[in-house]
Structures are given as structure tokens and as C-alpha cells.
Amino acid sequence: MRKVWFTIVALFALTVGAVGVAIASAQFKQSSKITLTATKEGASTGFNASIKSSDPGAPNGQPRALKTLTVVFPKNTRFNFKSKAVKQCRATDTELRATGGSACPKKSLIGTGSAEANGAPVFPKIPEKAQAFVGAGELKFLLTPSGPVGQTLVLHGKIKGNVLTANVPSITSGGLKIVITMLALKVKAAGSGKNAFVTAGVCAKKKFTVKSKFLYDTGAKLTLTSSSKCAP
Q1: 129 CB contacts (<8 Å, ≥6 apart)?
Q2: What is the C-alpha to C-alpha distance for residues 4 and 224, in angstroms, rounded to an integer?
Q3: Total domain count for the chain?
Q4: Spatial distance between the Cα atoms of 143 and 140, rounded to a whole number of angstroms
Q5: Which three-class secondary structure state does DSSP give residue 156?
Q6: Which of 84, 123, 141, 152 has the least C-beta neighbours within 10 A?
Q7: What is the residue-averaged pLDDT of the chain?
Q8: What integer is the mean pLDDT of 196-214?
Q9: How confident is residue 2, by pLDDT bands cut at 50, 70 and 90?
Q10: Which of helix, strand or coil describes residue 88?
Q11: Strands (E), 55-134
């Protein structure tokens, strides 16, 4: 199926020419809702993420592309990569792409969901399957086609303290720019107490607050905040 995708896009690019960086319009919208599954400070937790972008006023309706996403979890949130509740996936990106994630231990798969990309004007909506694996000091996000077209992509969410930073490479096919426009992911809680993989941090004013910092390929920046109810 990937061969079909590359062939169609390549032929289109030869016909109309390559598409450059997406130009944002005043209609550009970015949303981000990241919430912890725990309701108590210091408890084992997972998190749910829903991130979307759109720009109906941009050429072909393609929004600006994300270059770096930085997620700041509540202060003192801890990721324990030595937890026995999970296993680290040490597969290479090539092995991950080739096996659809089966090269990783089952206990390393900690999150599942979906994603969507914009390959306009050829394919304005490209559905993808999303998986999150525990790596060495990081979460590995694997995106694979869930329809007849798409690309397989591995993203690395490096974790330092309570901060996750993921760089998104420039994605092109046949000279056309592809932009990831949606990610919906559920990361489960694993382990408990000192063996918890993720421990919820500070509950301030009865809320867990998460900041999402976006850096786009245009150089533009945006910070959004989401929260969920909790008790100290």
C-alpha cells in the first residue's frame, strides 16, 4: 500500500510541482488537551492526549507543521524507567517500522490511539494508527497507516524530569508536504507505589495542570494549558 501512496503522490508532484511550507492564515486553530488519569497527587497515573490543528484559510487547508512539541506535566511528576511494571523497547526505528511494533516486548506497549495527517491536495485526510512504547528515557511513538495510503513514522518523546520533548521531522513524499494534524492517545497507568511507571506530581488548587508548548516549522510558537481535577 505504501508503494501506491508514493506512486500517486510522485505523479501528482510531477504534474503540479512541489508544495512548500504551509502558510498559516487567520483561521489557524490549535488545540491540546492532556489530562492525567490519576485523581490524587503521588498516585500511579497514565494520561490521555488529544491534539488537533486545522486551518481552512490556508492553501489546500493545510495547517502549519509542528516541529517540536514540549509537554510539561505537573511539577514533581516522575517517570520511572526502572519500573518492573514495564519493559523497555530497544528495537531500532527500522525494526519498529518493519514490524509494526511487534519487535518490542508486550510490556513496553503503554499507549494506543489514532492520528491523522494532511497530504492535500492529494489526500487531505490520512488516517493512522498510533502506539506508544516505553524506551530508554523516552516514549517511542509509532504511527502506521490504518487506510490504503500513509507513511510509517517513529517519533521520540525524550523525557527529563516532568518534561517530555518530541521533535517532529519534516515529512514529504514525492515533493509534497505532509502535516500531522491530529493525535489521540491513551497512555495507561502501570505499576503502583515505588514501582509505578509514572507518578502524578503536584495537585495545585485541586487541579493537575499540563502545559503544551508548540514550535512550528515557520518559527511561530504557542503555549496551551489543560487541566484535570485532583486532590492533594
Answers
A1: 112, 114, 115, 143, 144, 145, 146
A2: 38
A3: 1
A4: 10
A5: strand
A6: 84
A7: 90
A8: 98
A9: very low
A10: coil
A11: 66-72, 78-79, 109-119, 123-134
How many CA atoms lie within 13 Å of 213's alpha carbon, on the beta-carbon side? 11
End-to-end C-alpha distance for the chain, whole angstroms: 50
Domain hosting 18: range is 2-229
- The CA–CA distances, whole Å, from 12 to 7, 119, 209, 223 equal 9, 12, 45, 36
* Cell digits of residue 68: 517540536
Q: Which amino acid is at 160?
A: K
pLDDT computed for residue 25 by the predictor: 86
Q: What is the pLDDT of residues 11-48, one digit of tens each?
A: 333 333 334 445 678 999 999 999 999 999 999 999 99
Amino acid in position 34: I
List alpha helices for the chain, DSSP H. Answer: 2-16, 93-99
Model pLDDT, residue 200? 98
Decide if 146 contacts 127 (C-beta within 8 A).
yes
